[in-house]
Specification:
This protein is α+β, with helices and mostly antiparallel strands. About 25% of the residues lie in helices and about 30% in strands. The strands form 3 sheets. Strands 4-5-6-9-8-7 form a 6-stranded antiparallel β-sheet. A two-stranded antiparallel ribbon has the order 1-2.
């Protein structure tokens, strides 16, 4: 729980709402948990009950909290973003198809020397450079995926002049490049100090996370980019839909 800044330009009720929301995103408060009463929150944060009431109302309106008559206020069940791993689809499209709002914060966009793995995965020559793009992806304003994309410099230098807060695949399609498939490896990792911070995935240190490594190719089978995604599984549901051919029916 953070202290509220009474000299801040941000209203106290908004600070309180943000603090409660942060506790939910970090797992300190879980779906179904009852939050403190207005009197308890007022005493804890040293604010009026009107301030507390306004903060709670914001979270109720956003579907983050739910009031139950005669019982109290509880953390609402948060539906996870669902994604079929059998289909190559960008994060933005996945969110939209699931009825959720995608957003993105660009953390890094730079030109860097290719690593040995880049040379192998992207079919590069020794000494070439790659475009490294690191982004934090949000689903309904909750940080869900920390991703690092690496593109060959030669064909994709135009990316450094683009707005990278939306869908990379839409940008590529405007340049007549279509991602048609590729390979994917899924595993588990544990949140590092860099990944777990409030300005990143906002999870406890060493929290188990989903790890996804993709190598994506175009219609001719040429590598377009590699992508390493660290995913907060509290808000993300991976599945593979079985597709049965006629001969197996």
């Amino acid at each position: 729980m953070g202290k509220l800044k009474k000299n801040s330009s941000v209203a106290l009720y908004q600070q309180l709402a943000d603090d409660i929301k942060s506790q939910i995103q970090s797992g300190e408060l879980m779906p179904g948990d009852q939050i403190m009463t207005e009197i308890e929150l007022s005493a804890l944060y040293d604010v009026s009950r009107i301030t507390v009431r306004n903060a709670i109302q914001i979270l109720v309106d956003d579907g983050i909290l739910i009031r139950q008559q005669g019982k109290g206020t509880f953390v609402a069940e948060q539906k996870k973003l669902s994604r079929d791993m059998g289909i190559f689809m960008g994060f933005t499209q996945s969110c939209i198809l699931d009825g959720k709002k995608p957003s993105t914060r660009v953390l890094t966009e730079e030109l860097v020397p290719a690593r040995p793995s880049d040379v192998r995965d992207l079919h590069l020559q020794e000494g070439e450079k790659v475009i490294r793009i690191v982004r934090l992806r949000y689903c309904d304003d909750i940080p869900v995926v920390l991703e690092e994309n690496r593109f060959p410099q030669g064909r994709y230098l135009f990316l450094l002049g683009e707005d990278l807060t939306g869908s990379l695949y839409e940008i590529l399609e405007r340049h007549k490049i279509v991602v048609a498939g590729g390979s994917r490896r899924i595993g588990i990792s544990y949140a590092t100090e860099e990944e777990c911070g409030q300005d990143r995935l906002n999870v406890p240190l060493k929290e188990p996370l989903l790890l996804m490594n993709d190598i994506c190719v175009d219609m001719e089978g040429e590598p377009v980019h590699s992508c390493r995604s660290v995913i907060n599984s509290r808000h993300y549901n991976l599945f593979v839909r079985e597709r049965i051919g006629r001969e197996n029916r």
